[in-house]
Amino acid sequence: MEIRVLKYFLTVAQEQSFSKAAKVLNVSQPALSKQIKDLEEEYQITLFNRTTRSLSLTEEGRLFKEQAKQIISLVNRTDSYLKNINKYISGDIYLGCSESEANRIVMKAISKTQQHHPDIRFHIYSGNAQYVEEQLDQGIFDLGIVTGPADLSKYDYLTLPTLDTWGVLMKKDSELAKLDTISPKDLLDKPMIISNQEMVKNGISGWLGGNQRALNVVATYNLFYNAKLMCEENVGYVLTLKHLYNESNDSPICFKPLNPPLTLRSHLVWKKYKVFPKAIEIFLEILNEEIKKSS
To answer: Which of 36, 167, 183, 263 lies 20 to 30 Å (CA to CA) from residue 99?
Structure first.
């Protein structure tokens, strides 16, 4: 399999036409069609549904497209790094983040890094801890921020100083809004919206005394924004972290912390024994200094 052929495949998938893709790539349509046909025969798969009027990806083609995009991304990053390694400190840093106020110190370190090294570029992707770990393990992300109970045994990491506090987001006119804090018994008969991460579920289950199944879970979420919308539209009460929502006087919803308190720690993680380019080494040094100042 050649990188050139992967780029051909992705262009055809994007244009949904061999003739249009051939014009974009500046190659002949017969030559392009033969390259894709050879690729299909090499792996004994069908990548495209072909008719006289349309062209679409098969299920195998859709899966192959995602893998091809990741391969091309890694090739481009490696090419950029090798071209600039002896010129000046530059490069691209790919960072996956779960949602947390603890991320603020990382963003401060990004700002300081770019003040001193403006040719270092950061690419931030948001997702839950499971998504971040999957992308790290596949080599798509260089670094990741994971919040809460996580298996750190396969990573090197820096512990971020800010603790996150769990609580419940609710409508201001709801039954629980008059309380200062929320206890396990307060939630057992309420419609609940909770994170779909297994490790988060386990933490909540422990806070509930192993009684998570007693909760009336009406919806789950992986990122906060849609959970907030569901709360505003009376779907239910949202178990979430403090500071993800900035409450105002005219807001229809409010946040109440859990009692007993439930807190989580965030970590910046990367694959063990990974050899980093200079740009990432510099960023980690700056972040480490910020963490020390905070402590």
So the answer is: 183
Are 156 and 168 part of one and the same domain? no
Task: Judge if 167 and 259 occupy the same domain.
Answer: yes
Same domain, 102 and 145: yes
Q: Can you give the CATH number for the domain in which 74 is found? A: 1.10.10.10
Whole-angstrom Cα distance, residue 231 to residue 214? 20
- 208 and 130 belong to one structural domain: no
Range of the domain at 66: 3-82
| Domains held by the chain: number | 3
- CA dist., res. 164 & res. 168, Å (int): 13
Specify burial of residue 142 (Cβ count, 10 A radius: 0-12, 13-18, 19+).
Answer: buried
Contact 58, 47 (CB under 8 A): yes
Same domain membership, residue 132 and residue 254: no
β-bridge mates for residue 146, sequence order: 267
Token digits for 172? 């201001």
Q: Is the pTM of this model over 0.90?
A: no
In order along its 295 residues, the chain shows pLDDT tens digits of 788 899 999 999 999 989 998 999 999 999 999 999 998 898 899 999 988 788 899 999 999 999 999 999 888 888 877 776 655 678 899 999 988 889 999 999 999 999 989 989 999 998 888 889 899 998 899 999 988 767 788 899 999 998 889 999 999 999 999 999 999 899 988 999 998 876 666 677 778 876 666 788 899 998 889 999 999 999 999 999 988 887 778 889 999 999 999 888 899 999 988 888 889 999 999 999 999 998 7
